[in-house]
Design a protein that fits this description.
Number of helices: 2
Low-confidence stretches: 25-78
Mean pLDDT: 75
Strand content: over 45%
Radius of gyration: 39 Å
Helix content: under 10%
Structural class: mainly beta
Shape: globular
Number of strands: 55
Length: 715
């Protein structure tokens, strides 16, 4: 009986506890207030009350249901629409009237069709009832998707715009029309494909059209006020690429005359056996690459230009061909027909093999080795057409065991072997040997080449009384290794490469005069020295300060003083505060030109007279361009780039001071110093590629912002 009483008391206590919990929950629900973030003022009709994506909205709906079940009133309204207004203008910021503005995925209450508006005379439009369901949230900004268009303007498709009075810009476009005829017969060309692009190097599809049976074409959508590149291609016709300025009219005529191409047969044969070379490829002009058949023949439409192209075949050295236009066009402008094919003789490739190691015998993997033509010996050959062509350089990469294989060498051509690594921009190019390629089809064993990655270099100028000294002997003696010696050039410049790191004695001798100084050679670094021979007789000086355009002092800048005739009369460096003092080998009052040693040519900074002590110079630091280098041929990895530069003359390119061959980063990024002047150019290519496969860039068009690099595609 006692146990039964205890159980009854426990059950009664549990019941009382449950009743208390239910009452507490009920009073909690009664006292809960709706969050103020979802209860707008009754007069604010444009406020979004409930966001369907808000995780709290389910709770609010539940509270409303509970209150409704208790017969309580609520002050929360449901706003289902919003208002929106905006303006549509053209690329000259003029309002566009009668432009169609469509709200994508949005319909008004009871309307099955999407909301559409037409702009007023001032270009404005408005929507009074934008459904909340089509409003999107992008980082706290309310947006909707609109489709805006009008005849005569570019259609950008569907885009997102904010609700806060967007300004929509439509570019003006026109239609380009005309006829395509052949030259010299003047007949219409049917089926010609005309492609318009914004740039000659644009890889996009562009705007295209095709001529009809009468040679007529019309292409809509060309942006006004721009220059487009027209590319016209047709069967049996020489392809044409031309820049065409697009005016301000709605329709513009552009007639095209395409010269007819004669068809000639090229026959590719082995130079020794005279057997046909099957599968040899050649790309002539703007056309596609053609491949020889089982007879070694390939029929090609020849464009009316001087031809320079390369014939490639597996197992053979590349054959560079140069053919003048006059060979198949007479002085009267008529095509010269020939029954026989043009024969191209190919040499079986010569392969150079070897192994690259460090002084301890450890293999050097992932280093590049380049076999470049020896400039001191014959490096030109004559093609089958009797035209001299330069011998191209060849590049390869060492394997994990240090071995390498350089293919497609020119038979009997002399080469210089240089090696380097792309792991650091300060790495040097080391000359490790030379060879003369053997006869066609034979291999050259270069044996084991030794390169010490710790090697450095010393370069600089030899001066006497501030004047450049030529033919001076510059020598470094390294204990246990030997001597490194060279002579200065006409400008007094010298370079000692492949020097072991450490502190060494540097000796200069010339015409009975000598001087010795110590130099620190660091691993993988090219140090710079200025050597002054005994016998200096400076009789004057010049001093001042060097600052940037922003007024910042330029420290450790090498300055040269020259006479008006260009003779060196002194040199020195700026101090930490930008001040300098140059000892001169001329008398007071003599005109002096002050130049700075830049990464490129010496640049004139100012003029003064000897004896001046308050010369103020301005220095512009070199610009550095950021390039995104990509390989057009995705099957080949692009690890290095050969860089050259020009001061403005497109035919006079020189090796870039950053290095003749530099490494490309893993992501394809490349940072390179730009030569001075707005008309300067850079020429990039794959190491060993011909001039035809190089890409020439105007430095003024390159980006110096590393966040937005300039895209470069190399063939």
């Amino acid at each position: 009986m006692g146990n039964i009483r205890r159980h009854r008391r426990a059950i009664a206590g549990t019941a009382v506890l449950c009743v208390g919990l239910v009452a507490s929950v009920a009073w909690f629900i009664r006292d809960v207030e709706t969050p103020t973030t979802v209860r707008p003022a009754p007069t604010d009709r444009d406020r979004i009350e409930l966001d369907p994506r808000d995780p709290q909205s389910d709770l609010v709906d539940l509270l409303h249901a509970v209150r409704a079940s208790r017969g309580e009133a609520t002050d929360v309204e449901t706003t289902e629409t919003r208002s929106m207004s905006g303006i549509v203008v053209d690329d000259l910021h003029r309002p566009i009237e009668h432009a169609d503005v469509e709200l994508v995925d949005g319909t008004a209450a009871g309307e099955p069709e999407p909301l559409r508006r037409s702009t007023a005379a001032d270009g404005s439009f408005s929507f009074d009832a934008v459904p909340i369901s089509v409003v999107r949230d992008h980082g706290g900004r309310k947006t909707v998707r609109l489709r805006v268009g009008k005849v005569g303007y570019a259609d950008d498709g569907i885009r997102s715009y904010g609700l806060d009075r967007p300004r929509i810009v439509l570019a003006r476009v026109c239609s380009v029309f005309g006829t395509v005829n052949s030259v010299p017969d003047g007949l219409p060309v049917a089926g010609a494909v005309i492609t318009m692009k914004r740039s000659r190097y644009d890889q996009g599809a562009g705007i295209a059209g095709t001529t009809d049976a009468d040679g007529h074409y019309e292409i809509a959508g060309a942006p006004r006020g721009t220059t487009l590149f027209f590319k016209v291609a047709a069967s049996g016709i020489a392809p044409l690429v031309r820049a065409v300025p697009i005016g301000d009219s709605e329709r513009q005529r552009f007639d095209i005359a395409l010269p007819l191409c004669p068809e000639r047969v090229f026959r590719v044969v082995d130079i020794g056996s005279r057997f046909p070379v099957v599968g040899a490829s050649m790309e002539i002009g703007e056309g596609e690459a053609v491949v020889t058949n089982t007879y070694g023949d390939a029929a090609v439409r020849l464009p009316p230009v001087d031809l320079r192209f390369t014939v490639r075949a597996l197992g053979y050295a590349d054959e560079d061909i140069s053919m003048p236009f006059a060979e198949w066009v007479s002085s009267a402008g008529e095509w010269v027909s020939s029954a026989g094919p043009i024969v191209i003789e190919m040499h079986p490739e010569v392969v150079a093999v070897g192994r690259l190691v460090d002084p301890a015998g450890k293999p050097l993997a992932c280093w590049w080795i380049e076999l470049s033509p020896d400039p001191e010996r014959s490096v030109a050959r004559v093609t089958a057409q009797g035209m001299p062509m330069p011998v191209p350089a060849k590049l390869a990469t060492t394997r994990e065991d240090g071995t390498f294989e350089v293919r497609a060498l020119e038979p009997n051509a002399p080469y210089i072997a240089t090696v380097g690594t792309t792991s650091s921009p300060d790495d040097l190019v080391h000359r490790v040997g030379s060879l003369v390629a053997r006869s066609s089809g034979e291999s050259c064993d270069m044996g084991t080449l030794v390169c010490d990655p710790r090697w450095g270099a010393v370069s600089g100028f030899v001066l006497r009384s501030g004047v450049d000294v030529r033919d001076a002997t510059v020598r470094i003696d390294v204990d246990g290794v030997g001597a490194f010696e060279t002579t200065s050039s006409d400008s007094g410049k010298f370079t000692l490469s492949n020097v072991p790191p450490g502190r060494h004695a540097l000796t200069v001798r010339h015409e009975g005069l000598s001087t010795t100084t110590s130099v620190d050679v660091r691993s993988g670094i090219r140090s710079h020295e200025q050597l002054e021979l005994a016998g200096s007789s400076a009789t004057s000086s010049v001093s001042g300060t060097v600052r940037t355009d922003d007024g910042v002092a330029v420290a450790d800048l090498l300055l040269f003083a020259r006479s008006e005739e260009g003779t060196s009369i002194g040199q020195g460096r700026t101090q930490g505060d930008g001040t300098f003092t140059l000892a001169l080998s001329v008398a007071d009052g003599v005109p002096v030109r002050l130049e700075a040693a830049s990464a490129f040519d010496d640049g004139l900074m100012g003029r003064c007279r000897a004896g001046n002590s308050d010369v103020a110079l301005r220095y512009a630091p070199p610009r550095v361009a950021c390039l995104d280098v990509r390989s057009v041929d995705v099957r080949r990895a692009l690890t290095t780039v050969q860089i050259e530069y020009s001061d403005g003359d497109a035919s006079a390119f020189r090796d870039h001071p950053d290095g003749r061959i530099v490494g490309v980063g893993a992501a394809g990024t490349l940072r390179v110093r730009l030569p001075p002047g707005s008309g300067s150019r850079l020429r990039l290519r794959r190491p060993g590629a011909s001039d035809e496969h190089a890409t020439v860039l105007t430095t003024s068009s390159l980006s110096v912002d590393p966040r937005v690099p300039t895209s470069i595609d190399l063939r």
